[in-house]
Amino acid sequence: MNISSEIGKLDFVNGMRFVERDSAAREESRKTGDDFIKTLGFNPIPHALIVKIKPEYADKAKMEVIEKKLINMAYIDDLQYPRNSLGKNLLIDFNKNLRTIETVLFTLAIIFLIIALILINSTVRINMFARRFIIKSMQYVGASDWFIIRPFLGMYILYAIISTITALAMLGGLIYMGEVRFEMNHWQDFLGKYLILAGILLVLAILIAVISVYFSTKRYLRLKIDQLY
Questions:
Q1: Domains of the chain (ranges plus CATH)?
Q2: CB atoms < 10 A from the CB of 100, how many?
C-alpha cells in the first residue's frame, strides 16, 4: 500500500505492521466465540496499520503533533491509541508514573553508590592495615614510595575491573531475562545508557580504589615503626 510506504518514511516511526480486515475478523471471532460476520452479513472491521513510535517521541506534545499529522493523511479514517477512563492519552499518566519511578530509582542508585564507595574504601583500608608491616619493611630496605604503592594499585585496579564486569554482567542478565519473560526486544533502546553506566561504574571503581590505596599506603609510610602497633 502507498500509505504504508509513506508512513514508513516518517521520522517518528520505529516499525509497523499491516493487519488485513479478514484476518482481524477471524481473530476477533476466535476470541469472542461469535461469528459476527455471519450475523451482520458483512465485515465491519476496517484494514488497520499498527505503527510503533520511537521512544524519544513518547511525549504528550510530540504525540499531539504526530496525531494531527497522521489523521490529515489520505486513506486514514481513524486513529486509535491507549486512553484512560477519561478518554485522555494514556501516555500522560504513563510518563507521570515513569518520572516518579525514575526519581525513586535515581535516589536509590545514589544511596547504593555511596554505600558501595564507602565499603570499597573501608575494605581497601582494612587490607592495607593488615599489610602495614610489609609496607614498612619494604621502606626500611630502601624501596621507594612508588615502588611500594605500585603493586597494590595494580592489584586493586584489577579487582575494580573484575567487580565492575561482574556487576554489569548481572545487570545485563536481568535485562535479558526481562526481555525473554515479557517477550520484548527493546535491548537496543537501553544499549546507549548501558554503555554510559558501564563507563561511569568502571571509572568510579578504579578512582576510589586508586585514591584509597594511595592515601592508605602513604599513611603507613609516614608512621614510625612503633606507631604501627
A1: 2-81 (3.30.70.3040), 91-228 (no CATH)
A2: 10
